[in-house]
Amino acid sequence: MRYAQGGGLTDAGRAARERLRLQAVERFEGGQKNGEIAAGLRVSERSVERWRRAWRERGEAGVLSKGSPGRPRLSDKQIARLERELERGPLVHGWADQRWTLARVKTLVGRLFRVSYTVEGTWRLLKRHGWSWQQPARRAIERDDAAVELWKKETWPLVRAPRRPSAPGSSSRTRPGSR
């Protein structure tokens, strides 16, 4: 694990790393070698090499912190497009059945906008914009509800097994309860 708490740097940690990089820039300008800078700042030589390359390419701005990456956000225009694509249905996007799962919506967002959400983040995105979780009713196309009701009322009472009368029993397999 890269960081002890399992996440990225805090704002204070990021500011401290930025101060280190700026000190390295001063030493670059002073003509020091990467090994000397790494030893003096107590960082790896690879980090100093990376910082020097960024400094050469973009100057001091190249070594400044870019800030917290934050969570992915979709613009209002992207949300409107996502809604249109969801309304078109999963079949249009390559899924055979007519169900949108969170994993499928997550994949669609990635394909459309090159943004990676977690499944939980996808659920929050959908909920935040008024979409709800729905379970499609699974029914046969040929189903006749009137015939089903008629069967329940007329046929089922005739074929249903009668209930046994309740009597004291025993939890023992070898000794049945007395009747």
Automatic annotation (TrEMBL):
Q: By its UniProt entry, which SUPFAM superfamilies does this protein fall under?
A: Homeodomain-like (SSF46689)
What are the boundaries of the region Disordered?
A: 160-179
Q: Where is the composition biased (Low complexity)?
A: 164-179
Output the InterPro entries linked to this UniProt entry: Homeodomain-like_sf, Winged_HTH_dom
> Where would I find the Winged helix-turn helix domain in this sequence?
97-155
One Pfam family in the UniProt entry: HTH_33
Q: Taxonomically, which superkingdom?
A: Bacteria
Q: What name goes with this protein?
A: Putative transposase
